[in-house]
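In the current project phase, the collection of sequences with tokenised folds has grown. One resulting record follows, to show the layout:
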Amino acid sequence: MAGNCLFAFEKSKQAYFQLKVYHYENDEQEKVIDQYLESAYLPALHKLGFKEIGVFKPLENAVGQDRLVYVFISAADLSLLVNLDQRLAKDQKYLEAGKVYIEAGYSNPPFKRLETIWMKAFEGMPKSALPKLSAEKNKRIYELRSYEAATEKLSMNKIDMFNNGEIDIFNKLNFNAVFYGQVIAGSTMPNLMYLTAFESIEDRNTHWKDFGPLYKPMQDLTQYQNNVSKSIKVLLFPTAYSDI
């Protein structure tokens, strides 16, 4: 019964997303992370029913900043994300395949820091989607954007803007969005995040050039002013073992 549980979750028509961000410093750590994700984490998630898991790395790492790996998963219910670590801990095959990563010592960790971001899908796109691209996986470009707002109300205003026209523009121009999500747990709230996909960097640039004229009338509307205080974009490529 819900009264006897620490957490009670309502069923939602909108999916929930998890984005894990590994911060690491060297090639050896990257090798351990990749081996863990490919041989242990993704197979275990697939066995639990998670599909279409995305693993991405930045096209370029900024000098002096952490190197990064992004791991995206989607779930129909938030409880599936909350309870995920406990379920993995019972999977002996996962524990064995990921032993180098899982049992790493304090003096030789496989990463510097690890972020976990939880999101709820927008009403305008309630579930994640596989991009419809013809280019080989190693040629594709993904773009992750985060839009921060000065207040929670302004962040909801920007989400309303997406749901009432901006997503339609992205769809019309075939931006191949993987997800749009309201961040419900993260370090830069209030913010939203979304991921789009392109055949190549040239294809990406052409899409954004075409976006501007269609977006400007909406951008100029009085009710949508000042709803983004900071925009962060990262160009990514998928790993060979990524499902997306």
